[in-house]
Please model this.
Amino acid sequence: MSLNPQYEDIGKGFVQQYYAIFDDPANRANVIHFYSTADSFMTFEGQQIQGALKIVEKVKSLSFQKINRVITTVDSQPTFDGGVLINVLGRLQCDDDPPHAFSQIFILKANAGTFFVAHDIFRLNIHNSA
Model:
C-alpha cells in the first residue's frame, strides 16, 4: 500500500464523527463500530484494553453524562500502509467537573475501503505540581 493523500480530510472527518458519537450519552456505546473485535488497542489514562467489546465496556463504565469538548487542533499524518495517524489536542469538561486539557492519539488502519481504530491513547493533561 501507499500513502493516502487524503489523510488530512480523513483525520478531521473521523474526529468530528467519533466525538459526535462519544459525547452523546444515548449513542456513546456505538463507538464500538470504530474498533476491531480483536485488532484494536486502547490506553485510557494508563489502562491497557484490547478488543472492541472490552473497549466499549470501558466507555460504558465512565460515570459522566455531559461532555463539553473544545478541539484545539487535529494533526494527521499518513502511514505507509494506507492508514492515518491522528493527534487531537483540546479541552473537555465532564458534568460539573472543572475543564481539563486532553490529548488523544488514534491510528486508523485501512480495511476493505474503510478504516478502523487500531490504536487509541487518551490522557487528561493534568500535571502534578506538588
About this structure: The radius of gyration is 15 Å. The first strand starts at residue 41 and ends at 44. Strands lie at 41-44, 47-50, 67-78, 84-94, 100-111, 114-124.
